């Protein structure tokens, strides 16, 4: 045994616990104070925040920024849950109209906020003292659209958009679906336009009547429609059939329109039961999704009438 003043022989000046060692070195992400651990913790916090902000089937809230944009959104009855007005703002006709419209509508909170707070909310954008908060859009499930039509004893008429990224195109399609008796619109969850304020404005109020569904995988959603008895018709400039030759429009049908530049993606095109071209004697190479879908919707409504 060693006394307190001198270590035991053969220990090299170390105590028993020191000689046992600390085991293998833990990964950098688990070492306290290590930069990789801080990065991992920050990533986890961001992921948790996104999960809390985004409920299933819903988009995230949107901000409309600037006096003209806010006034136009309120004029077009775009849904809103709060209007933020800068403190000590220099009022003009647009500010007065926005405040009056928000207060008359009901359900829209009027919030007075200092300029630094509005700068923070908008990431430094030129908000001009007005910020309108749009609530998250409540998307339907793709199968809900066909089920609702069948429940009413009607043949489903649905438009699916493949790779359409312009919200105005989406709004135009929603408006056409409402005009010609369709039952809804399906958009992919990723790399596609959603129901933003721009889509609401272009729909001219039709978005309040026509459900929009969001599909995690558009190809699988189309396959599910086929199993339910719907015919999937893709619009393509090089389609095998002309619109006048298509007989499927009398029954349950899904019309798929792609982007004006790329058209239908390969997988979606292969999933379609038929690919149809719209005759264009004027020689135009293509039509945007809103126009193309409107033409086919009109032809469908004409035949069904």
Descriptive overview:
The chain is an alpha/beta fold and 305 residues long. Helix content is 38%, strand content 17%. The protein contains eleven helices and eleven strands. It has helices spanning 16-20, 35-53, 67-75, 93-105, 115-121, 142-151, 167-179, 197-203, 218-227, 266-271, 289-304; strands spanning 62-65, 82-86, 109-113, 130-134, 157-162, 184-188, 212-215, 231-235, 241-242, 253-258, 274-277. The strands form two sheets. It has a seven-stranded parallel β-sheet with strand order 7-6-5-10-8-11-9, sandwiched between helices. Strands 1-4-2-3 form a four-stranded mixed β-sheet. Strand 6 (184-188), helix 8 and strand 7 (212-215) form a beta-alpha-beta unit. Helix 3 packs parallel to helix 4. It is flat, with a radius of gyration of 29 Å. The protein starts with 15 loop residues before the first helix and ends with a helix.
Number of helices: 11
The N- and C-terminal alpha carbons lie at a distance of 105 Å
Total DSSP E strands = 11
Spans where pLDDT lies below 50 across 5 or more residues = 49-56
| Overall geometry | flat
Q: How big a fraction of the residues is strand? A: 15-25%
Task: Give the overall pLDDT as a whole number.
Answer: 84
Strand order of the largest sheet: 7-6-5-10-8-11-9
Sheet with most strands: 7 strands, parallel
Rg: 29 Å
Assign a percent range to the helix content: 25-40%
**What is the structural class?**
alpha/beta
Strand/helix succession: HHEHEHEHEHEHEHEHEEEHEH
Short synopsis of the structure:
With 305 residues, this protein is α/β, with parallel strands linked by helices. The chain is 38% helix and 17% strand.
């Amino acid at each position: 045994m060693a006394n307190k003043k001198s270590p035991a022989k053969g220990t090299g000046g170390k105590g028993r616990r020191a000689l046992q060692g600390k085991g293998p070195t833990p990964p950098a992400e688990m070492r306290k104070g290590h930069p990789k651990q801080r990065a991992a913790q920050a990533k986890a916090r961001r992921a948790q925040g996104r999960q809390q902000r985004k409920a299933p089937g819903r988009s995230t809230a949107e901000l409309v920024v600037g006096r003209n944009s806010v006034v136009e959104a309120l004029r077009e009855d775009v849904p809103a849950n709060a209007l933020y007005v800068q403190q000590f703002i220099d009022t003009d006709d647009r500010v007065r109209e926005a405040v009056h419209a928000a207060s008359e509508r009901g359900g829209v909170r009027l919030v007075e906020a200092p300029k630094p707070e509005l700068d923070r909310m908008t990431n430094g954008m030129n908000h001009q003292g007005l910020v309108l908060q749009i609530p998250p859009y409540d998307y339907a499930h793709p199968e809900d659209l066909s089920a609702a039509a069948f429940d009413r004893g009607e043949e489903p008429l649905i438009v699916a958009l493949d790779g359409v990224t312009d919200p105005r195109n989406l709004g135009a399609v929603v408006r056409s679906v409402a005009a010609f008796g369709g039952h809804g619109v399906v958009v992919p969850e990723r790399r596609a336009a959603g129901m933003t304020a721009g889509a609401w404005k272009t729909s001219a109020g039709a978005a309040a009547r026509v459900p929009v569904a969001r599909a995690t995988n558009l190809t699988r959603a189309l396959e599910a429609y086929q199993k339910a008895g719907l015919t999937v018709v893709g619009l393509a400039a090089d389609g095998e059939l002309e619109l006048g030759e298509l007989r499927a429009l009398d029954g349950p049908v899904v019309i798929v329109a792609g982007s004006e530049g790329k058209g239908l993606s390969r997988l979606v095109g292969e999933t379609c039961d038929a690919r149809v071209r719209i005759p264009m004697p004027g020689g135009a190479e293509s039509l945007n999704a809103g126009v193309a879908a409107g033409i086919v919707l009109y032809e469908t409504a004409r035949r069904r009438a």
